[in-house]
What does this fold into?
Amino acid sequence: MRNLILVFILLSSICVLSQAQGTQGTQPDQLQKATDFSGGYGHFFTGMGWIEPADLVSHLQSPAVFGSSFAWDNVAINTGVEGYAEIHRLLVGGGGFGLITQNMESDRGVLRFGFGGGYAKVGYVVYQQPRYFASLMAGFGGGVMYVGIENTSDQTPIYFSSNTPVLPRGDEDYFRGYILYDLAVNNKSIATKINQSSRKFGGLMFGLDLGATIALPVDTWRDDVGTVTGIPSPGSFVSPYLRLTIGGGGFRKHYD
It folds into this structure.
């Protein structure tokens, strides 16, 4: 599944970049050139994210948890939604995302891992033509790390928490809160045909986002009941991503 998404993103990136290059060379000379744009757009996104919280992985590989043979899977599916308003090249909006890995198995049990959150973003459009624009984005928000542990052994407890182990044939879920920062370079293209001479335009949009989420822990570990002690803090981490966006929007040209 992850390989199919990666191939889809690579093929889509070629299409978006080709369309952007074609847009730059097809503007009729007789049209009045717009100096600014306003409007809005929204999209669904999916792609690949890379995540490896080093302190958490080290704890999971300790003898009391899964042992040194445990292999962390640092490639995840990154998916979510976003929406933005453009006001004279200034972008304001936000969205939410989920980062999901495949279940990771060891001789003692199974690890489930996920990370998700929501954020507000602002950005600036550094280049724009009616059918294509590129922007720089920065965001701030909050998120939650999820760790689920299933003990598949018959006799050996798993001490993810040194105070409250996961007993044989047991299953526990853990959560921890984070502050999120997000930095990205976005490319968007209107795929449907538009009237170049019209002041208002819009349609189906595709795009590519290249960025990274920076996560800083702000809470203690918790389970379904309350606070859980005896678990080392996973610390801060950076999760780069490459995402394909599919959505739509409408814009208006501004002239001098």
Remarks:
- Residues 42 and 49 are 21 Å apart (CA to CA).
- The two ends are 49 Å apart (CA to CA).
- The longest strand covers residues 109-129.
